[in-house]
Amino acid sequence: MGWQCTGLRWPNAQGAPVLGWRRGGAVRVSVLSYGTDLGFRAVGERCCVGARGNACPVKAAVSGRSAGARCPECARLDRAHSVAADTIADDPRTYRVYLAWFGPGMVKVGITAEEREAARLREQGAVVFSWLGRGPLMAARRTEELLRSALGVPDRIPYARKRAVRAVLPGVAERRAEVAQLYGRAAALEGAGWPEALERLPFEVVDHAGLFGLDGAVEVAWAVTELVDGGVVAGRLVAAAGPDLHLETVKDGVVVLDTRLMTGWELAGADAQAGVGVPVTDIGGGGVQGGLF
Questions:
Q1: pTM
Q2: Is pLDDT above 80 for 135?
Q3: 100 touches 110 (CB < 8 A)
Q4: SS3 labels along 204-252
């Protein structure tokens, strides 16, 4: 049995991202560094990764395009205890409400457990963010709904939209200003439906562009849509954001790989000069191309 990838993680605000690996009961991580080579080949069939730390009882086959890599039954079990799915109302932990910026005009509101600090923001690929408030789960959830309704901001932004703007991010001052403006509008809602149990936090912007490797121009050409048996993805790592790796290939520019597509596969090493031999799509949505470039 080979190693299976468990996805990209961001351990802390200063540290490099890591890829998690599992083989049977053994686990390990690979620390990633920008400028280094990375290459792998998918082997066999993609199988369900199970739910809540438990293996799928039937090792069900799953689609290569699924970001979750779970069969319907395991997906249902995984969401049965999910804060994001509103299935837990009595969680005693303290939660924080945040405002996250991904690109011009792309700001969202969300919540995360305070104990996780800003890990959730790095996992989503938030280039800039600020905390807004802290309190019990339901107060945080009500504040999230208030902001969505009053300010017209979403609680989700598709990854395809995030990827499309990473090559054209504005300067530090401009991106921080957009978050500051939204924070001011949100703070003005205190007394107009703002839950009393939610403590407002002062504005303090955090910029992840340097951490992600996006403080220089990253001209992305393609995004991987799925892995296939025998398919290779290889290149030089130039940036990472959320679950995405940005790999500069020998012939075809920078390709984005959503590491969630790696989960459920057995992976073997591949030469970094091998390029990309899996289906990809134009980062601007111009269509899917199968096989090699």
A1: 0.89
A2: yes
A3: yes
A4: CCEECHHHHCCCCCCCEEEEECCCCCCCEEEEEEEEEECCEEEEEECCC
